[in-house]
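BUG: 3D viewer hangs when loading the predicted structure for this chain

Environment: internal workstation, default settings.
Expected: structure renders.
Actual: progress bar stalls at 90%.

Input used:
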Amino acid sequence: MTNSKLHYKKIRRYLFNQSFRIFAHAKSFSAYQRSAKRRCKIIKNIPYLPNGSPAQRLDIYRPLNCPLPRPVIMYIHGGGFTMCSKDTHQGVALAYANNGYVVFNINYRLAPKHRYPAAIEDVAHAWHWIVKNAERYGGDPERITIAGESAGGNLTLALAAACSFRLKDPVAKFIWDVGVVPNKIMVLCGMLQVSNPHRLKNVCPPINRLSRKLDLTIARDVSRAYLGAEYKKFYPDRILADPLKLLESESKPDRLFPHTYAMVGTHDILLDDTRRLEKAFTQKAIQNTVSFFPDQGHAFHLLGLSSQAKVFWKENLTFLLMGCSSGQMKNRM
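Structure tokens produced before the viewer hung:
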């Protein structure tokens, strides 16, 4: 790669990252978030590993004046494995906490400084910590949902797969040995196969040429940042980078796979990943709810600029209520 291309990538990543931070900061002043903060308690920067770096910490958001214990959500932020943090996604954590959930909003190490499997290793340790400590912070360890968008959707699916399939991968063995499978997972506009990003060119939705070129370039850069020079090929020993491939394989879950909610916009470059996931779930008879939001781009639900974002949140919160007793939750969105 030439120095000019590398410089351009760094500038683009910096601008995207700063945009997320500015957007998150601006949204924190919104009437909804200010109101939600008054109804929630936030505990910041808890290390989930001994002497954990800032990249290995989590924040806890829990509702006030609600009977305990509450259902738990472990939230894994997106950002192409290279940017964003629990801080840029505080609005998401607040939204769930404001609806009655104890939310563990986690950080993890980022690429390209920390390539695969660093992110899933950190997610595994955060999962272990949450399972052991959820009750201490008012969470119900019998009702845990894992959720994430984009790269976080990938990590969500990989974590759930390692909870349900007995795999030889060292990180997967650690996750398996935790001995707990989440009740539900939410895979939101996920990049579910990181390897071979060129596959997306043939299944790209009909969007304008400029957006298509930019999205394909970003997908390639994300794959290369996370997987390194061998990003173009799928390798079975990197299965947790490509959890969709595991779901599409002949392997069957050794434990009951959690009920899954998945969604994507029909203008999202990653549309086909969710289509493939739905097909894999059907073939394996895994309980699922999959939604495709018309004319929406990547992570549209976080921006809140479309009426479809409201549709998503209503549907998403309804999915979370499944299995809860009547009147247990109050929708405040």
